[in-house]
Every structure is written in structure tokens, then in C-alpha cells.
Amino acid sequence: MYRLILVILLLTILYYLLRQMFRGFRGPLPDGQSNSPVQGSEDDQDQMVEDPVCHIFVPRRIALIESIGGREYCFCGKECAGRFRNEHPV
Ligand SMILES: [Zn+2]
After folding, report:
1. Contact at 8 Å (CB) between 53 and 83?
2. How far apart, in whole angstroms, are the C-alpha atoms of residue 32 and residue 26?
3. What pTM was estimated for this model as a whole?
């Protein structure tokens, strides 16, 4: 019984490995076939932005974006955003 489970497990791992390999070979999917509805904005979300306080680079999708004094700033977290606001009163 245990052997059967082991074989199924191995096949599953093999399946995922092969899928990953094929995905790598094909590269990015052409337009229309990808699952993401908006490709352009997705690239934008992956863009790395610099935190002006601690100078850490964070992907735009997880960055805390605050509009301070008409400009947009990207922070790694609330702590840095708060510090930036204190240093730059509008
Ligand atoms: Zn920071």
C-alpha cells in the first residue's frame, strides 16, 4: 500500500516538474492566451520601487503608495510612510 502512495507522489512531482519545464521553454505566453486580463498593468505591478526612507527596493504590488504633497511615494510599510510624513510636512 505504501508503495502505491509513493508512486503516486513521485508521478505528481514529475508532472509538476515537467509542467514547469515546458512553461520555461515556451517563455511568456502570447497575447490572448494568458490568464491575466491586463498584461500591461501586471508588468507595472512587478516594477521595483525605492522606499525614500530606508532605500529598500520593493515590488510595486506590495509597496505602500502614498500621495504626499502632490507626489507619489512608495514605502515598504506604514512605519516608513509615517516617518516620511513627519520629515516632510505638507
Ligand atoms: Zn522602508
Report:
1. yes
2. 15
3. 0.51
